[in-house]
């Protein structure tokens, strides 16, 4: 089920009911982008004239990034918190592999493309492989690629999904804290590449010591952080209130932070709601509220970044 097929009634959203972008925000963003590109061109020419090659190269790299129009939103978290399930719910498809075993140490990136395809980059290789999207589990799961024996560095999945159309790179990172040490290393190394992150914890063991330390590391590299409390379908409404209060208290005690809002979500229920078109279940899953906040954030923060 596509993004636009669920009625997102939030007024703070990048997408209209039919799935189109907010044109006023989009036009303003494009004007700012063109103005910045022109200024970068002038600076680059001046640096080149002065013979400041390193600085000129840096401006060249900024120009390329501006032209690519890319904003990296990464989903992070401890092993088995439901990161992939949350991403599946947001794109409305049971696409990214989930299960009891940890995934491999490969970064999986979702990007917009006119047709579905899988692009695999291997370590120490200058070339990429274009493959059918059905082969994704062969590269990012322990069953298909145990201990990353295929030496996969990054996997890009291109999809014709409106959520990804505005230059968004939606990234699934390896879970931290599993028996696969390389997963944790890869995730920590990826933090500086993130423009914003979604940290996923869950009600069955909310905000562990490992996650608190991980969140501290995240905030050293990334200013824009969402916290999602997943698997809310496992507890009653009363229990959920207690868990939310516990998470808020832990964040205040250990992080001295009141600004990080916590979004309770059942990714499993949200994906099911999307697949069968159940608006009531979608609302109850908590995903509509999170998506409204996420869409509004993306429309504002992409311009700021």
Furnish the topology, listing elements before pairings.
Elements: H1 23-49, H2 53-68, E1 71-77, H3 83-91, E2 107-112, E3 117-122, E4 128-131, H4 137-140, E5 152-159, E6 168-172, H5 181-190, E7 196-202, H6 209-221, E8 225-230, H7 237-255, E9 262-264, H8 267-276, H9 279-284, H10 287-304
Parallel strand pairs: 1-6, 1-7, 2-5, 7-8, 8-9
Antiparallel strand pairs: 2-6, 3-4, 3-5
Helix pairs in contact: 1-2, 1-10, 3-8
Textual characterization of the structure:
- The protein is of the alpha/beta class.
- The chain has helices at 23-49, 53-68, 83-91, 137-140, 181-190, 209-221, 237-255, 267-276, 279-284, 287-304; strands at 71-77, 107-112, 117-122, 128-131, 152-159, 168-172, 196-202, 225-230, 262-264.
- 43% of the residues lie in helices and 17% in strands.
- It has a nine-stranded mixed beta sheet with strand order 4-3-5-2-6-1-7-8-9, sandwiched between helices.
- α7 (237-255) links the parallel β8 and β9 (262-264).
Question: What distinguishing features does this structure have?
Answer:
about 300 residues; alpha/beta; nine-stranded mixed β-sheet; disordered N terminus; globular
Q: How would the global form be characterised? A: globular
Structural classification = alpha/beta
Q: What percentage of amino acids are in beta strands?
A: 15-25%
Major β-sheet profile? 9 strands, mixed
Terminal CA distance reads: 31 Å
What is the string of helix and strand elements? HHEHEEEHEEHEHEHEHHH
Number of helical runs?
10
Query: Roughly what percent helix?
Result: 40-55%
Q: Could you name the ranges where pLDDT drops below 50 across 5 or more consecutive residues?
A: 1-23
Evaluate the radius of gyration.
Answer: 20 Å
